[in-house]
Fold this sequence. Notes:
There is one protein chain. By secondary structure, the chain is α/β, with parallel strands linked by helices. It has five helices and six strands; from the N terminus they run E-H-H-E-E-H-E-H-E-H-E. It has helices spanning 28-32, 45-71, 83-86, 106-113, 125-138; strands at residues 2-4, 75-76, 81-82, 96-100, 117-121, 144-145. Strand 2 and strand 3 form a beta hairpin. It is globular.
Amino acid sequence: MVHTRHQSWQKPRNRSGVEYAIPDKTHLPEITGITLKRRLVKLSTHAGTNRSYWDRTSDDYQARHGPQLARNPRAWGVWGIPEDELCILGDVAGKDVLEFGCGAALWSIALSRLGASCVGLDVSEQQLQHARENMKAAAVDFPLVH
């Protein structure tokens, strides 16, 4: 899912108000104008299980679904309805976009090409590796957050 932000990026906080961001791109502070510190976060059992699952299965997932997803990277849901038909996002040029669960970051790559400033977020480091490969092939660059 893709969400646009309304305010300049702020350090995320959990429900108790504790900061928990762990960005991995060195140019993110230049873009946002903030200083970031890596902070280890203890995952819940469920989140850890989810992360392990995606790290273990992402290569197979990308092998099976990557070609289909790449044919139309701006498609919604399991039915793959094109954004061009639904027009949900409108003009994204100049907009800030945070893609939650970006996986191989195909949405962010496509939106970057349309002039959006994207950040991809995913629980799986292995999925983010696929995103890095896709970004390199597409000659686009934006921050990825693990």
